[in-house]
Each structure stands twice: as C-alpha cells, then as structure tokens.
From TrEMBL:
Residues 86-131 form the F-box domain. InterPro entries: F-box-like_dom_sf, F-box_dom, LRR_dom_sf. Pfam families: F-box-like (PF12937). This is F-box domain-containing protein. It comes from the Eukaryota. SUPFAM superfamilies: F-box domain (SSF81383), RNI-like (SSF52047).
Length: 415
C-alpha cells in the first residue's frame, strides 16, 4: 500500500489520490460501526494510510538532494502535489481522524503530531495518556516545561495524562523525589486515574507519597496496578482513595470482605485466597453493597445444603464471575446466579476434584441454559480443574463425558 501510494503521487493521478482518501474515510466509518468485530483488521490498515500520507508530506517538504537540479516546471508540479496532499488531510473530518488516532501506535503518533496544527491537537491526548518515568530527572524536566512561559503557546500535555508508570530501572533507584516536586507533578497531571509504581522507585519516595502524604496531595485514582509480579497492596492503600477507587486487586493480609461497603464505586473486585465465602448470604452482601460491580473474583467453600432466600436482590451490573471452589460447585450459588445475576455473560469455575459430584450434570445444564438462552451477544462458560493424582483423571473424564451428553442430547436431562 505504501509503494502504491508513492507511485500514484509521483505519477500525478489525482483521481487515485481522491480514491485513497475516500477509502480511508469509508474504512473509518466501517470501523466505527463494527468496532467490536473489526478492530484487528482496521487497526492494521488505518495507521498505514496515515503513515503513507505522512511520509509523502515529509518527502515533499524536505525534498531530495537531486531535487535542487530539477527544472522550474518540475518544481511547480511538486508544489501542486504537496497542495493536493495537504488539502486531502485537512478535508478528513476531525471525528474520523480522532477515531483513527485512538488506535495508532505511539511511534506513528509522534510523526503525525508534526504534520499540521489540527493533527497536533488531535494526537497530543493519545500520545500523553500514559507516561513512563525512567529517571528522577524526567519529573523535574516535566515540571520545568509546564512552568516555562514559552510553553504557554503549546498544548499542556500534563492535562491528558491518565496513567503513570515508574519501574525499577537504573535511573530510578538512587535519587529521591522531593515532596514539593511530587506535589507540583500531581498538580500538572491532575487527571491521572491509574498508577503502577515500584516500591523502590526514587528511593521509595514515590510509593510513600502516594499512600502516606496529606490527602490534599493526591490523584483521584480508579485503580492501583502492580509494577512487578507478586507486588501486593494493603487495604489502607485503597482506603486513601476510597472515594474514587473502582478496582481492587492484589490485596494482602486481610481476612474479611465487609470493607466493600466503604467502596460504593467498585467495578472490579478480586478477593485473595485468605478470604473464603462460606455461604450465599456473604455473596449477596458483596453484590448488594457494590451496585456498580462488573467483575468479581473470589474463593468459596459453601455449604450446599442451604437454600436461596426468597427476598434476594437482582444484580444487573455483574458481567464476569470467576469462582475458585475449595470443593464441588455449590448448587445454591448456581441457583443465585441464574435468578439474580441477569446480565452475567462470562462464568468461570475452578474446581478441586475431591469426589464425584452427583448433581454435576444438573448444574452444568442449568448454567448452560442460563447463558445460552440469554440476550447477550457473546457468552462464555469455563470449568477448570487441576489434577493432583492419577485417579483424578478418571473423574474428569466422566465429567467431560457428562457435559458432552448434555450438549448433544439435551432432552435426556432436565435442570
């Protein structure tokens, strides 16, 4: 595509150029209408068109060494071609360009940002939405840029930053960031909602400022992401941001779950293995206290002889449920899923094979019928297990056989 575009420009075929512009617009529209299905295909095509356009602009603006020896006639043709490309760019609607830039790689965004003023304004938010700090000097440079009077003529990039990452690189371990600089950094990046900060970054000062300084110096964080494998967070870390936090994961040193009542904005919750849900009332408590919950991961060891209460509350927000069972799949939980979690579309059960579950087929059919007769566009049901002994393999084979019989001979068993 890049070569063909270059050939068309050189040979001066305006109809072909206009056709390529039309293709870009049509692909963007198609992408917008079918984003769920076509994202991979369009993501591969659209930035390539932008790259071709950008390459041609750079070539026409800079020229080649041999171009200095061309005739004035060729110079006029070159200017005409440059004008055509520029006109083509400026006639692409801003909303389509904006949609394209959302899915453009950073290296291409950096080049596109220099094409013209309109592209500069459109690409800046996506280029700076996530920044990585590799040395303490970068923080000082960032502050210096925003405090420089000359930078007032440019777009202040700090207001577009939504995520900050600071790892354990060579330039991050030896120098501490002052509290004053951290406060200024927070002020210029005031809309950050996600951080991934190493414990040792900047002699641990960044991590300490995030969780221990005055509440007036903080971001409105939605989530805390671990910077290295195995990094965990205390519940106190989340409590500092309880008014804005939407995701709680990687908790350590907790035994209970009632803290969820203090986080009404929660959309994702993953309870650690130290917290085990032992009855359906506990599960319902979590759902009732978190009305915005979309994804829930938990461990359970429920008594399967309990029954579902008549006054249960429907939970329409939950879409994804991951349950790690310390025993068999509890029927009471399955009953609650199929009666209360009306919009659930992704269910995963991790099972410990302790014995043959006599009602396994009934449970599987109940879950299958619930998911595959719903109005969801895409659904998923996964049953996972680990074999610790050779004898467990036979039990798993029997469960798989039962699932296949239900799928291919559904009339033989009623839930």
């Amino acid at each position: 595509m890049g070569r063909r575009f270059d050939f068309l420009i050189r040979e001066n075929h305006p109809k072909s150029i206009i056709s390529l512009k039309y293709d870009a617009v049509e692909m963007a529209k198609s992408y917008d209408l079918n984003s769920n299905k076509m994202i991979t295909e369009k993501n591969a095509k659209l930035p390539r068109i932008l790259k071709d356009m950008l390459d041609m602009l750079v070539q026409e603006q800079q020229g080649d060494a041999t171009r200095t020896h061309q005739t004035s006639h060729i110079s006029v043709v070159t200017q005409h071609k440059y004008l055509m490309i520029t006109t083509m760019i400026h006639h692409l609607p801003a909303d389509i360009l904006d949609h394209i830039f959302q899915h453009t790689e950073r290296i291409t965004l950096k080049e596109c940002r220099l094409v013209c003023v309109s592209w500069y304004l459109l690409t800046t938010p996506y280029l700076f939405r996530s920044i990585q700090i590799n040395s303490t000097s970068q923080i000082a440079e960032f502050i210096g840029f925003h405090e420089d009077p000359a930078s007032d003529q440019l777009v202040p990039s700090g207001k577009y930053v939504r995520r900050v990452t600071a790892g354990e690189g060579i330039g991050m371990a030896d120098t501490r960031v002052s509290l004053e600089n951290f406060e200024t950094f927070v002020k210029y990046c005031s809309k950050v909602t996600s951080v991934s900060i190493s414990l040792t970054a900047c002699e641990g000062s960044l991590h300490r400022y995030l969780f221990e300084v005055d509440d007036n110096i903080k971001w409105k964080l939605h989530r805390l992401d671990r910077n290295t494998e195995g990094q965990t967070f205390n519940l106190d870390h989340y409590y500092k941001y309880k008014d804005t936090i939407k995701v709680i994961r990687w908790l350590k040193d907790i035994q209970g779950f009632h803290f969820v009542a203090d986080f009404p904005l929660l959309e994702e919750l993953a309870l650690p293995s130290t917290v085990v849900i032992t009855n359906i009332q506990d599960f319902m408590f979590i759902c009732n206290k978190c009305p915005n919950l979309i994804e829930l991961d938990l461990y359970t060891n429920m008594n399967d002889h309990t029954s579902l209460m008549a006054n249960f509350v429907v939970c329409p927000s939950l879409k994804t449920l991951n349950v790690k069972c310390h025993s068999l799949i509890p029927k009471v939980l399955v009953n609650h899923i199929t009666t209360s979690l009306v919009n659930l579309s992704d269910i995963t059960f991790w099972i410990e094979i302790t014995s043959i579950q006599t009602n396994f087929g009934e449970i599987y059919k109940q879950l299958k019928d619930f998911l595959f007769t719903s109005q969801q566009k895409a659904v998923s049901l996964k049953l996972k297990t680990e074999t610790r002994h050779t004898i467990d393999n036979e039990k798993i084979y029997m469960m798989i056989d039962e699932c296949l019989n239900i799928v291919y001979h559904p009339s033989q068993l009623k839930a």
